[in-house]
Amino acid sequence: MANTETSLKEALASIEGATGVALVDYTSGMALGTLGGSKSFDLGVAAAGNTDVVRAKMRTMEHLGLKGQIEDILITLSDQYHLLRLMSGRGGNGLFLYLVLDAKRSNLAMARHQLKKIEEDLEI
Is 99 exposed, middle or buried (CB count within 10 Å of its CB: 0-12, 13-18, 19+)? Predict the structure, then answer.
């Protein structure tokens, strides 16, 4: 089991093309931890904004009567991938991992696989 800091470091170091990662509480919009980003890309602001995406999808699923759980949400930009991985179990309810990838340097399938493993090992 890994703590938040260790998990964020692992994501940024081991996932090819990762430029930023955060653990986010989607009920409050607060980033509980961030690593990476840049002066032109504020991870805290991006994390807070993406809580709206998670909440909107959850509301839509509720209105449609869908019973499944969200594993992850992918947003593709022309030069970046934004991956939102909802936490499950072990106190992770209401949290998601937010990963920003450089689209030219990353393998999306591998990034999803690695982020899932990091999420499974993360102890909140």
Answer: buried
